[in-house]
Amino acid sequence: MLSRRTIAGALLGASLTSLTRRAAAVGVDAEPPPRLITADTYTAMPEVLRRKNAASEWSAVNKAGQPPVDSFIEGLVAEADGTLYCVDIPFGRLFRIAPDRTWTQLAEWDGEPNGMTRHPDGPFFIADYKQGLLTFDPATGKIATFLGRRDSERFKGLNDLTFALNGDLYFTDQGQTGLQDPTGRVYRLRLDGRLDTILATGVSPNGLVLHPNEQVLFVSMTRDNAVWRVPLFPDGSTGKVGRFVSFHGVSGPDSLTIDAEGTLLVPHASLGSVFAVDPDGEIVARIRAPRGKTVTNAKLGGTDRKMLFFTESSTGTILTAPWSVPARRQYADKA
Which residues contact 322 (CB under 8 A, 6 or more apart)? Predict the structure, then answer.
């Protein structure tokens, strides 16, 4: 006797086949499935740099019930000469990875660094969950506070950041927000020092990136398992914010990067992949990690800005895959 599952599967298959035939009959092209790409391992954190069996506050909260993590890398910065930079959240560290894939620790502090980007004058800006908005000067190796509080109040917990071409800095204040507490915030820090609240009802706002025309800001809302589309009006306000693309799974979309044609590259922190989403919100490619599920942070870099680098944080690995379109122009490119 056939099982209910077998019968249901046969009926679903027949329905899909019927729909495909009907679409063909009326001259409608069926949507092609997303391209599947398997990434290559570029480098992994050396054993000597891993903090094995070391407790951390971050691990106790974010990996409750699990053994302490030895690292959790994010915050990729990909330079044109092949140099990479990344941070280690639970142990407050920043690393340089040379083109020969040698790792060097550049800084360590009492923080939980997450997103990182570079300013054209040289310093790195870091979204630190514990300490706020920080800078790192590679010439001196010093970490400094750039914006630790607003109106004498601490942030919930910063997560990621991105520069506009005019130097305005957008960043997310995620904290422990989620569907139970949709109060995550997205800020814009203007060159003149004004701090604007773009959104105050975010469901765990995480990664963010500007469309190449800079009239739209895309924001990962991790616990909503979606990327929101945030129009930016000439007066600095926004309206009609909506879900651009939705996902599923235990976690959700993390950091974001975008190419020059407006295709979003979306790491998903529990589906082990970077999803490529075209300007209409259709998933056109899925770039799989060869191991691990916790894909968190991605950047397009290299000499032609067409190499996708991304982190699989549970294994401390950086993966890579070629992309056909270069990254959108960045503020740091003005240097």
Answer: 306, 307, 308
Contacts of 41 (CB under 8 A, 6+ apart): 290, 291, 317, 318, 319, 320
Q: Per-residue pLDDT tens for 95-121?
A: 999 999 999 999 999 999 999 999 999
Q: Are 119 and 165 in contact (CB under 8 A)?
A: no
- Classify strands 158-163 and 169-173 as parallel, antiparallel or unpaired: antiparallel
Type of residue found at 36 = L
Please write down the HEC assignment for all residues of the chain.
CCCHHHHHHHHHHHHHHHHHHHHHHCCCCCCCCCEEEECEEEEECCHHHCCCCCCCHHHHHHCCCCCCCCCCEEEEEECCCCCEEEEECCCCEEEEECCCCCEEEEEECCCCEEEEEECCCCCEEEEECCCEEEEEECCCCEEEEEECEECCEECCCEEEEEECCCCCEEEEECCCCECCECCEEEEEECCCCCEEEEEEEECCEEEEEECCCCCEEEEEEHHHCEEEEEECCCCCCCCCCEEEEECCCCCCECCCEEECCCCEEEEECCCCEEEEECCCCCEEEEEECCCCCCEEEEEEECCCCCEEEEEECCCCEEEEEECCCCECCCHHHHC
The pTM of the full predicted model, rounded to 2 decimals, is: 0.90
Cα pseudo-dihedral 286, 291, 292, 296, rounded to 10? -50
Q: Which two structure tokens, joined as six digits, stand for 140?
A: 């001196």
What is the rounded average pLDDT for all residues in the chain? 91
pLDDT band at 25 (very low <50, low <70, confident <90, very high): low
pLDDT digits (tens, 9 = 90+) for 278-308: 999 999 999 999 999 999 999 999 999 999 9
**Distance of alpha carbon 252 from alpha carbon 14, whole angstroms:** 32
Structure tokens at 90: 């639970």
Task: Check: CB of residue 107 under 8 Å from CB of residue 89.
Answer: no
pLDDT tens sequence across 197-253? 999 999 999 999 999 999 999 999 999 999 999 999 998 899 999 999 999 999 999
